[in-house]
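agent> step 3/5: call structure_predict on target 'Cytochrome P450' (Photinus pyralis).
agent> reason: downstream docking stage needs a structural representation; sequence fetched in step 2, passing through unchanged.
tool.input:
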Amino acid sequence: MFTGRSFFVPRRATKDTQFNGYFIRKNTTLIGNFRDLLMDEAAGWHNPEDFDPDRFIRDGRLKIPVNFLPFAWGKRRCVGEMFTRANVFLVVAGLLQAFNFETVPGNPVTVETVENFTPTVNHYKTYVTLR
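tool.output (status=ok):
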């Protein structure tokens, strides 16, 4: 999975609290690590860099793990989630309906990312032909 950004929007602790054995003082700024939530093997992702749709299928049914939160969670989750899901579906379905996509022989696709402020995927070549 490609994580478009590495960190969540900062939050502020509204009171002194304990979390996973850590004391967090009131007014502390908290920044969640978005990439680790979706890609860390310690968070339950086996081979997170591999494309594996089976990780979301159990007994022939779609099963989304509780720690799969690409749009964050809670009352401040991404307001564009439903719009994004619908748009991505329509765009990808339209492209797959109209075109064939093939890799260029001798030019393998890699999943390595280039780390910037926002990670990006390395460029690669592909053949795109009309169906």
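agent> step 4/5: record observation. Residues 1-72 form one domain.
agent> proceeding.
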